[in-house]
Every structure is written in structure tokens, then in C-alpha cells.
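Can't paste images in this forum, so I'm doing it all in text. The chain is below; anyone willing to post the predicted C-alpha cells underneath?
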Amino acid sequence: MPTYRRVEPPKTEPLISRAVLLLAIVALAVAAMFTMSGTVSRAVLALTRTVDGMIDSISATPSPRPTVAIVADAPLIQAPEEPYTADPSVDLVVIVPADAVGDARTKVRVYRTLPDERPKVVLDVPIGEVPELVVPVTLVDGHNPFSATLVGPGGESEPSPVVNWVLDRLVPKIKIYGPPPDEKINRQVATVTGKTQSRAALSAKNETNGESVAGRAKADGTFEILVPIVEGPNRIALTSTDPAGNKGETTLDVLGGEGKLTAELSVEPDELSMGDLPAELRLRVVVKDPDERPLENADVTFSIQVPGIPAVQAQTVTDAKGEAVYSATVPEGATVGGGLATVLIQSAEFGEVKGSAPVTIAE
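Text version of the structure:
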């Protein structure tokens, strides 16, 4: 630690000593005269004492000025990447200021401040030759707010910012909201919803078909996870792993139905006369999911084939009503005969389905 150097004053003892010695001789002479006359005044005695004190002060050794002790800066505790743990002990990593490294007179003092309590000393640790100290501490259940100070010749530093660990050894609970156990699901996936511990990692395995998926609970603990299912009974095992590593488990049964994706294609008009060419054809498709609900944002590919001209094709997606429309012009050059309009529907969730409708070119 830094100190202040004492500056020596100029030496003036010889001149002062001579003056005091001369004064002392005069005082003794005066005292002798009064002694010879048989009287000693109080003034003479006081003068004698003053001279003696001056001589003593000159001969005394001056007291050294004290060294000023500087209070060290506060240390720093590294915050954990994940404060929640099921382990009853953790290692605190304490960073000490560079000027305190290797100082045998200084130590790190670790405090824990529990709710509604004053900070309590956990332990004191000597400082080594490196700036990082690994300090093992034992946790109590719940929150463990730690801080640290440096204690040395200059006193105790300000505390470091508080860093918190949470000892959590409770198994997370899982509450299932859906789907209802008696509901038949015609889709290829079951949407499992529920609530568990905040930020818990979720794993769902369909023990019937072996499919597994992962998810994570939101900050409020709610979750939604899509699990592939098959027709008939499905047993799904759900695991919730909280941030501390504790695991909770539950199962649910889901019944897969026989429903399929459907596409209904219509063509207007479905017959054109040669004398009407060129003429417009309008194709319209209505797509429903396995639960007979309109399917939005499904990929749609329309195709038209009529005799005498090349086939035409167009792509689009279904709207909120599950519908898609395509209009095409049949040019002159088409010949009499039967043609075909087709549609291909593709859904990442439900697979694909095809539809078709006849188109006739008459004389």
C-alpha cells in the first residue's frame, strides 16, 4: 500500500543551544546573587524551570510522522451464467484489485445477506499471487445474495455488487391443459399445452411411434409443444427440467383419428366452344384440415391441360377461408377434346392432397 515520505526539517540545534546556554549562565548568576543575599524570588525559580524545559526539548528525539494507510478498492464477484442450482455448494470467483494481489496483510471477506437480515460474514480468505480467487461456499435453500470486501491495514473497503445464487431442490410440477383425454385428434400432431416452472426445458416422447420433440416454458411457466401422433391410442411421456436441473415427469393419452386433408376443386366454365376461343377459365379450390376447418397458408399448385396447346401451371397459397383462385386464358389453337384441371395442396403440418376436375373443348 502507498505511504507518505517524511521530510526532515533543517537542523537549527547548534544556534538554539548556544542561545539557551548563554541565557542559562545569566540566570544562574542572578540566582547566585539572590542566594548570597539570602532571598530567592519566585521569578528566578520560574526562569530556571523554563531554561531546563528548553534544554530538554532541544535534546529530545523528535517523534516520527505516521504512515497514511490507504483503503483498497472493492473486489468483484463473477455472476454465474445460471444462478439456479440443485447443488448445495458452489465456487465463488472473486476478482481482487491489481494493487492488492500478493499482499499478505490483506484478505477477502465474503458476506451473505439473507432476506430481512443484516449481512453476515461467511468466511475470510487470504489473497494469493493471482487476481482470481476460487472460494467454495455452502448454500442455504432459496436465495443466497453474496458480496465481498477487502480487509487490510487501511480498514475495510466498500462491498462489491451483490451476486445471487438460488438453491432449488424441488421437483417441478407439470399441469396439462390440453388436449382433453376424450378428444379425437384428426391431425398428424397433437398440441400439448400446460404449465410448469418458469424457463423449464421440456421433452415430449410419443411412446407409441417413438417420436420425440423438445420445447421450453415461457417466463410465466406456460408451454405449447407439438407432438406427432398416429391413428389410434398414443401414450405421450412429458419431462420438465427446471433451470436448477430438477426433473418432473408425467404422461397423457391422446387418441388419433382417421381424418385427412381435403381439397375440393371446381372449374368455371367446365366446357368451352371452339367459337368462344380465346376464353377464360377460373379454377377455385377449397382446402380443409383433418378437423374440417379451413386451412390457411397451404401451398397450392394449379395445372391446366387441354388438347392442342401446352399445359400451364401457377402457384399460390390459401387465404384465411382456405380458398385459392387461379384464372387462365385458353387461346385459339386449342382442339376439340377432353382436358383436365388439377391442383396439388401441400402442408407442412398435414401432408399433401390432390384434386382434379374435367375441362372440355367442344365444337
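Helices lie at 13-36, 42-59. The CA atoms of residues 71 and 154 lie 5 Å apart.
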